[in-house]
Amino acid sequence: MDTPVGSGTLYWFIERHREDTGLFMGARRVWTYRSNFQDIAVLETETWGRVLVLDGLVQMTDRDEFIYHEMLAHVPLMTHPDPRRVLIIGGGDGGVLREVLRHPEVTRAVLCEIDPMVIEVVRRHWPEHGAVFDDPRVQVLNEDGNQFVQTTYERYDVVIVDSSDPVSYSRSLFSPHFLAAVRRIVYPSGLYATQCMSLLYHLDFVKGFYRQLQAAFSNVALYTAPVPSYPTGWWNFAMGSIELSFDPDRLPLKGRSIEFLRLTRYYSLEIHRSAFTLPNFLVQELQYAHGTDR
Amino acid sequence: MDTPVGSGTLYWFIERHREDTGLFMGARRVWTYRSNFQDIAVLETETWGRVLVLDGLVQMTDRDEFIYHEMLAHVPLMTHPDPRRVLIIGGGDGGVLREVLRHPEVTRAVLCEIDPMVIEVVRRHWPEHGAVFDDPRVQVLNEDGNQFVQTTYERYDVVIVDSSDPVSYSRSLFSPHFLAAVRRIVYPSGLYATQCMSLLYHLDFVKGFYRQLQAAFSNVALYTAPVPSYPTGWWNFAMGSIELSFDPDRLPLKGRSIEFLRLTRYYSLEIHRSAFTLPNFLVQELQYAHGTDR
Q: Which has the least CB within 10 A, B3, B27, B125, B233?
């Protein structure tokens, strides 16, 4: 960006993470859209770069999207010995898809994004993401993620939920009904991963969802990563599998292509292992064995 | 707190982390003080609890202070086989001191806080911290930390710098001159630890300080933890020693009292190990061997 902050009008965007606190960003330019599903905005900022906002909540910023997207894609994909068929629910910004496609094992990646306008807006403002949607391995569906998993006959090695938070359209993506359907469409030797909110603001949600996950899958785990533009800047993720072990000290690396590790800015195999170490208060809340299967 | 947010006036406190972005908090009550050194404020908030603000920058909140203070105290203290004599530079809020005193090995803890009014304010608004300052093992000095380390004849097993950011009075605490003095007053078998800013906002500072640290100490390491109320919510720490190994897989636990681990809310020995795993971009920037001595 050529123009220094302060030389022009700043449009102050405010995200209330809770009633009395949140993050603000000064944008030099703002584009707003209204789809059939939500308000969409793109901000051009100095500190965060381009920012994608859905219904008033920051979804992606140039400054920190690499952490969120790398951790939501590479942790499940490196936990699987041969991830060929990947389903992404949500993820219309293309970030998780970009990271998934770095794995040459992947032969088919289905992106089920309910709102086609999100993809249109991303293509316009993040043109470098266009190639991601156009990859021949990719199929983009504009369907409701919950309805899709309830009705599809396809099976997947990895199912990733990259949704907005569990309000409005995304609420169904955190329900027992949804988890039961995911369990049906993921191979027993495959796994499911989802973003799962902040441990400091949404601990009751995380605990409740963890119990649901335990009811749906034999092996479950939580892991965390810093995501500065999300509430509290410290984000939680969850995984579930019927048969696959999540032990980060015994990743099935044999025969895997790991050239992508030269391209990642946050993720590494060491980060993968460390991410499963949960803070003491959560260990106590969940009576959870560190980073290993239950 | 009995009164719900929204039932009364909210005083909006805004911290600009950078020119165009930052955190806001709505306070129901605000107390302000002016010492010889700085503005001091205490906010009463719903989400963050009580908040200590120095010169407009959040220093401590009830919601997340445990992470910062546990990580700045227990990581160095558990790296040392027998930490008896501890010096804390800054730390007037008493949080690091509280955690240091959980170690029965500690026989003397010197707190060198330049501003006595910080301690007065903390005693008034965080009365539970009063006992910490009154512990018979503690000596509180109100001196400039840099001058103190330049002139003292005492030696320490662990020196911890819990300062505000390297502007104004705290700038000298990140200088080569200061590091040389710390090297002199810490036993060769001891170690030094400091807060060290955000990897996402202050990467150039971190890299520069890391080089200074390498010039002053044979063994150096960085580690991170989530601190939601600080800029980017992801904080960095640094350690240095002349002789002590920092390998988190070989902590000198023999004979150590670890009862305090039942009281920590963030820190655990597993968290200690994981905290030294640095993101790929920093590894590349520092050409740094993961979590082990150079």
A: B3
